[in-house]
Amino acid sequence: MALIDLPVVDPHQPAVSTVSDTPVTSTGGRVYVETYGCQMNVSDSEIVLGVLHQSGYQRAESIEDADVVLLNTCAIRDNAEKKIHERLRHLNFFKNKRENMVIGVLGCMAERLRADLLEKEVVDLVVGPDEYRRVPELVAGAQGGSKGIAVKLSRVETYDDIEPLRTEGISAWVSIMRGCDKFCTFCVVPFTRGRERSRSLPLITDELRRLWDNGFKEVTLLGQNVDSYHDEITNADFADLLIASAKAVPEMRIRYTTSHPQDMSDKVIEAMAEYDNICKYIHLPFQSGSNRILELMNRTYTVDRYMDRINKIKSTMPSCALSTDVIAGFCTETEEDHQATMDLMKEVRFDGAYMFAYSPRENTKAWKMGDDVPDDVKNRRLNEIIAQQNQISAEINQSEIGSTHHVLVEGPSKRNASEWKGRSDTNKTVIFPHDDVRGYVVGDVVPVRITRSTSATLFGELV
Ligand code: SAH
Ligand code: SF4
Ligand code: F3S
Does the beta carbon of 186 lie inside 6 Å of ligand 1? Predict the structure, then answer.
């Protein structure tokens, strides 16, 4: 797919926002939000539903049941955007049958492509991540026949006063900050989500208490780089927030993502070790095992620094599980650089990894560096990385056989209703037979002894 012409976005200058000037009043209706991309988008969709709910809209359970369909999109790689273009073509089919149906694009792709989406796709509204308060106004405008766009980025918006309309369950997502200031040269996020800003600590811990009171058993604190969390009022850093959270809801499982190797402090690692309810699992993306590539990526750390963090984690919390992100075939990557990536993964032995082929993104610094690793080479390297990692994950999981994990029960497994599934403290999926006699329920923590494993899953029996 040819990339569409983009307006040049100065990340430090908020973009202009335009909305149709037709006066609008909410006509209400049923809204279906479909979410793509990272957990931040999952959390944002709940915020959008919260905003719409306040304006009299109801959540629809399916597209067939909806008057308004909103796609909350991701722009991280070209194939993420391709998926949305395809989805919009499919939605167009519904729209042809139901004339009054409103279709909107939210999220990172809305912020990146802006008015082009209105011009080149059948879309009624386009709303970027910092303008979700205006969704009801734009939806009502679209219901009245006017298309609208709002893509201004903000330095302060954190949606603190919005009560997210959460999906029922036992796990909740809580954004603790928005945006990213890291400007890794390959990444669109600083452009699609704007400048970094943190929510205040007391508001976050209050939210955690409310979640616990409402039956949630686990929470994941979200930010693109949680280690640069900073609450200006209390001067708290991320370690302070973790400690305050662990104390505010001492029986709740607390997770977080994503850490950055440059900014992850000893204080964070020590706080994790000290509190039992902070889960022993860290997602620490390394991206490449070559210092030359790391520098071209503007990752701001070296392999030595990365290994220093890994060693600190392993010496402080020997049972802590680790996962990572890695990119294959970044511009100028040689076989030697690729081998360095393979070697780092062999040395660390991550429990799991998210592995990607480099996808050049327009207007990033790396875009101008070119995309000189041919697709077949990129894919071959990616496949080597995946094969090696699968082998390592399988070996690590195999070594779990005989050990006992405390598993938070999530419900019946998809494949077999007589089996249940849950997650270990170390974030591994564990499948075990359902046991009516003991009568445990979703949200309980049960001890499971591991008897069998694959590279992705542990299987066991209740102890
Ligand atoms: N803030 C997180 C990552 C967010 S994006 C961090 O810094 O770790 C998730 C992952 O997508 C990144 O870690 C990276 O591995 C991958 N990614 C981002 N941009 C990419 C691109 N242009 N091509 C391929 N992978 C990319
Ligand atoms: Fe993107 Fe880097 Fe920010 Fe992560 S830290 S969101 S990879 S710019
Ligand atoms: Fe995608 Fe935006 Fe998240 S680009 S990965 S949805 S921050």
Answer: yes
